[in-house]
Amino acid sequence: MKKSLALFFVLYSFVTTAQRFSVTFDKSLSNKALDGRLMLFVANNDKKEPRRQVSDDADSQLMFGIDVNDWKPNQSIIIDDKAFGYPIRSISQIPAGEYFAQVLLHKYETFHKADGHVVKLPMDRGEGQRFNDAPGNIYSVPIKITLKKGSKQTIQLSISKEIPPIAPPKDTKYIKHIKMKSELLSKFWGRDIYLGANVLIPEGFDTHPEAHYPLAIFHGHFPADFSGFSETPPPADMKTDDFSARFNIYGYNKIVKEEAYNFYKQWTSKDFPRMLIIEIQHANQFYDDSYAVNSANLGPYGDAITYELIPYIEKQFRGIGQGWARFLYGGSTGGWESLAAQIFYPDEYNGCFAACPDPISFQAYSSIDLYQYSNAYYYESPWKRTPIPGKRDYLGKVQCTVEDMNYHELAIGDKTRSGGQWDIWEAVYSPVGKDGYPKRIFDKKTGVIDKEVAAYWKENFDLLHILKRDWAKLGPKLQGKIHIYCGDMDNYYLNNAVYLMEDFLKGAKNPTYDGEVTYGDRAEHCWNGDPNQPNYISRLRYNTMYLPKILKRIEESAPKGADLSSWKY
Q1: pTM of the predicted model, to two decimals?
Q2: How far apart are alpha carbons 185 and 178 in whole angstroms?
Q3: Third-level CATH fold of 5-162
Q4: Which CATH architecture has domain 175-360+463-557?
């Protein structure tokens, strides 16, 4: 039971099984038929529930997925070799032995979109598109099973549990939570769609009613509450025996809490800049956020955020409400969003600070050149198949391939419905397919790239290409606004696209870009521009790192007669 899966495969690869699984759900969970993705999880240990032991990493356990439609209470659904599996392809390839098994149904809802397409997708339910935590999803209690060589037994699994609702966060003196219906998105999706935000208001907000504030938008993944801010310090006796494998240190949970409390102390100090900071909640049917742009598949999120949500927040919390007083920053997904929103709405924002951004050129789509390569999984060669790497550590050790990551997603959901990283890029950037779902940029099973889809991506979402194509028009609006930071050993090879962007920006003329592109030596993903702190500290200081840069930008660029005083007290 303690042996790794890899060892099982080496020793017993010839000892396969022929079992199948029969799954039912109790009528107490639903009187109605259900649609969704039914996932089977199989683990060789019970350290955690099997559903929480699947990842892109080498120690991943097993999962298999199938679509179910109109599944009725007590109706038996069979999971067999037809189910797509990860990291092995089929149930029959599982070596004989003892395991723990569990199933979960990720529920889909039916959407009648304004374009006439009818699609089935998972509605976010306040969890940020995480199927393991999505309220209303149903699952079984893990059971111990024995798989025998050559056996054709059917293993019975019964779903009896439901994930409960998530309680919304409560307002505090400094943190407010807003939710508004988006007319633009509701029209697109054919039902009410809401945007939310966690708003950090400045010290003295109530005692200075005359003040109007600049706005900083901290882009990133779904924020359940405003992160990195705490009015109370961690307990002095807080345990520090937790280990962060990512940063190779003990006690990281306490460090996180200490940094949150330090930010509170700075935020309320006498000389700290007074402004509004918001984190946007725009989880959707495909991912934990929308990438903050208009998309054929997701809808007009760029316009909804820029023209509906932000003015709503500024009106409610006395924002200055003009482009010169709005700024963008974030890392990874948030880094791409910050740069993209700045480029697509150049007059609405006065600067972006993009850390470790998702691919900003599809010539370097992670480790893939979508325009030159014919396959996303293997480098071209007449004699061999060299896998394209998907993730590495700071010394270059490959932890998984692009194929691994995409097979993981395909087991979770087909038709771009996994809620995973590669699928959300596809959902945001692709045109709508004939079936109403996003057109594949590459075949999810074979890796073959669709060049027509790649051409669509290039013209609509390749940020480097758009800047090159439109610099004569965009350059004057973006001068001094673009700042990019990236580790030169980014785990997902995101630095490769930054190099290409840097080459263009530094050579741009009429006008020059007058911004900043810097790299962290041997720094991994989410290096955000501070060479004086380890990344496990700097990643907790986005707000305090970029506010001085924002103030400098305001001083250099605010129009004549701008309000530069009411918010300085």
Answers
A1: 0.95
A2: 17
A3: Immunoglobulin-like (2.60.40)
A4: 3-Layer(aba) Sandwich (3.40)
